[in-house]
Write a structure and sequence with these properties.
This protein is of the alpha/beta class. It has one domain: Rossmann fold. The protein is built from 7 helices and 11 strands. Helix 3 packs across helix 4 and helix 5 packs parallel to helix 6.
């Protein structure tokens, strides 16, 4: 994987108060892409968790460092990398919807595979530039919704990762996309590290996470599926089922312990 940091790309952001992260840019496939990184306190080499966010069309061009994820994992002792997907924040390229629209055919799957390549490039870039600060043997990848699909496609292509976490993986699109129903389990069959699949019973479907876990488990590795009770968000879920919102900030208190226990077991902290 080839990635180059754009000249002068590192921002000297303070990791105190309202901005506990650094912002940086890297290049992949001729696109200048944005990412955020959170650093835990202390010194020495630390594990890294990569978080791939879901879609947010209404706020696509607004920077979103996902503070609730960054702080949760940073405070547990992990460095946290949050790549902005193509077309989001200050990352180059058209938005996800700008490319695939409402279609869920081959263009949908191809786009998410491209974004998986972007995420892998971000990991390589960060590890190269902070080799003394990060433990390259202890890297996990995690994602929500479309970011969960990106996570699985990325984990299937790289031996970089020691653990995988997916949340509501492509739940909205799964019933609409025969291509995703074929490609996602196929990717999972190439994953040979411990995997945690998480879903809410009142999401559009839990089938995508169930199929992923079954495929990983067939490889003889740990693959746990957690299906949470119905979740009702306070905020309007928009086009999504209420349970899909469990994995936003409002629901983090419900699943945080499961994530931290899984990471501590397979990465340490």
């Amino acid at each position: 994987m080839v990635a180059a940091l754009a000249a002068g790309a590192w921002a000297t952001a303070s990791q105190t108060g309202d901005r506990p992260y650094d912002t940086f840019f890297y290049t992949h496939e001729k696109l200048r892409l944005q990412a955020y990184v959170y650093w835990p306190s202390g010194s020495g080499s630390v594990p890294l968790v990569v978080y791939n966010h879901g879609s947010r069309d209404a706020l696509a061009r607004t920077e979103q460092p996902y503070l609730f994820i960054g702080r949760l994992l940073r405070d547990a002792g992990y460095a946290v990398l949050v790549p902005e997907r193509r077309g989001y924040g200050k990352s180059d390229g058209p938005t996800f919807t700008g490319v695939v629209g409402t279609r869920r055919g081959t263009a949908y799957v191809a786009r998410l595979k491209e974004e998986a390549g972007d995420a892998l490039a971000a990991v390589d870039d960060l590890l190269r530039r902070h080799s003394s600060r990060l433990d390259a043997r202890k890297v996990a990848i995690m994602g929500f919704s479309a970011g969960g699909v990106v996570t699985l496609f990325g984990a299937a292509r790289s031996e970089r990762f020691a653990a995988v976490i997916t949340q509501a993986t492509g739940a909205f699109s799964w019933p609409l996309s025969p291509g995703l129903q074929e490609e996602l389990p196929a990717a999972a069959r190439r994953i040979r590290v411990p995997t945690l699949c998480m879903a809410a019973v009142n999401d559009t479907t839990t089938e995508s996470d169930r199929r992923v876990c079954e495929a990983v488990k067939a490889n003889g590795v740990v693959a746990d599926l957690i299906v949470y009770p119905p979740f009702t968000p306070k905020a309007d879920p928009g086009p999504f089922a209420p349970g899909h919102m469990l994995f936003n900030e409002e629901g983090v208190s419900i699943w945080r312990r499961d994530v931290l226990v899984f990471l501590a077991k397979h990465l340490g902290s």
